[in-house]
Specification:
5-stranded mixed sheet, 16 helices, alpha+beta, binds iron/sulfur cluster, Nucleoside Triphosphate Pyrophosphohydrolase, 372 residues, elongated, 2 domains
Length: 372
């Protein structure tokens, strides 16, 4: 671990590099805790380029913590629609209401209070407290851990507890006490730009002289690979009704309907948002879908529904590889399903829906046009 003069030089070089070369990102133009919090939540598992338009639209609609707390959850989810990991939006909304109820609408500045908010763990709390309030809290996530592991030539699985504890100590020791917010962002920026997972650009790195991983020629081999969880394949079938006006049916999130979805994977994969009637299949998809529609009390007199297969949709969520078989069912009048809403098939995002549901709608629309 770096100490004394070496540590001082390391801090100075990294900070001055960050101050000169940092990317101009919308959330870096403010120290407002609400904006910092929002950006940190959106950036979890999501690329910067994908976050920027969402961040800007979200702040336009919910310009303050009070505005967010006062909005209906459905509206918040609609502005999150397409960004994925929807529990982030639900927690953000709940946390905003908690801040209004318990802190008069002012984002708390005590670590314990911040950690008591839903959806905020150690990393996010440290990021907000250091950037918005200048507190000495070092961040450590996978990105920063990779930089530290390379700097110190740390081998093995970084997520194993003793190793992670060592990295935490290291992150704390390196933190620049006079500028903790900038320091944390500098570490994140180095990990996101030059010290990237696959090919670290050591020749351009402002702290290359302090890097043990580079000196040993093993920088690009670190961190060592974790054991991968086995992939699980999931097959689903979805019923996409379409009436003569181009309207379709979406089911409300399972928790709202207060019933257990018969397809175990469906609520998770649809992120507990609005979705097409969907069921897990392992044999005849149409037969299974007919059975599912019967359970939803959709009447199909004389088996007159025609199930037109659209192109299969593939979707990967962490270790799950999902294949959805969408079936378009053209009807004069949409059937009635308790808790379902009628929306235009070409504009299903008027309701909060997941990326998977969007892909299914696109496939069904393409099937509509190719059938014409
Ligand atoms: Fe990362 Fe290379 Fe810089 Fe080391 S020298 S911190 S491996 S970019």
């Amino acid at each position: 671990m770096l100490k004394g003069r070496e540590l001082a030089a390391f801090r100075k070089q990294l900070l001055s590099w960050f101050r000169q070369s940092q990317r101009d990102l919308p959330w870096r133009r403010t120290r407002d805790a609400y904006c910092v919090w929002l950006s940190e939540i959106m950036l979890q598992q999501t690329r910067v380029a994908a976050v920027i338009p969402y961040y800007e639209r979200f702040l336009e609609r919910f310009p303050s913590l009070h505005a967010l707390a006062a909005a209906p959850e459905e509206e918040v989810l609609r502005f999150w629609s397409g960004l994925g990991y929807y529990s982030r939006a639900r927690n953000l909304h709940k946390a905003a209401q908690q801040i209004v109820a318990e802190h008069g609408g002012k984002f708390p500045s005590r670590l314990g209070d911040v950690l008591a908010l839903p959806g905020i763990g150690n990393y996010t709390a440290a990021a907000i407290l250091s950037i918005a309030f200048g507190q000495k809290q070092a961040v450590l996530d996978g990105n920063v851990a990779r930089v530290l592991a390379r700097l110190g030539a740390v081998r093995g699985d970084l997520r194993e507890s003793p190793r992670w504890q060592e990295l935490l100590k290291c992150a704390d020791a390196y933190l620049e006490p006079k500028s903790p917010g900038d320091w944390n962002q500098a570490m994140m920026e180095l990990g996101a730009t030059l010290c990237s997972p696959k090919s670290p650009q050591c020749l351009l790195c402002p702290v290359t002289q302090f890097c043990e991983g580079r000196k040993l020629g093993i920088a690009d081999l670190l961190p060592e690979k974790r054991k991968k969880r086995a992939t699980v394949e999931i097959r689903l079938a979805a019923a996409v009704f379409a009436d003569e006006r181009g309207r379709t049916l979406l089911l409300s999130p399972p928790e709202k309907r207060n019933v257990q979805s018969p397809a175990d994977h469906v609520p998770t994969l649809a992120s507990n948002l609005w979705h097409f009637p969907t069921v897990s299949v392992n044999g005849d998809a149409v037969a299974k879908l007919r059975g599912h529609l019967r359970k939803l009390q959709v009447r199909d007199r004389n088996s007159s529904f025609r199930f037109v297969a659209a192109e299969k949709v593939r979707h990967t969520v962490t270790y799950r590889e999902v294949t959805v078989e969408p079936f378009r069912i053209s009807v004069k009048k949409l059937p009635r399903i308790k808790g379902a809403e009628q929306v235009p098939l070409s504009e299903i995002t008027v309701l909060p829906v997941s990326n998977l549901t969007r892909k299914v709608a696109r496939a069904a629309l393409a099937a509509t046009s190719s059938a014409q």
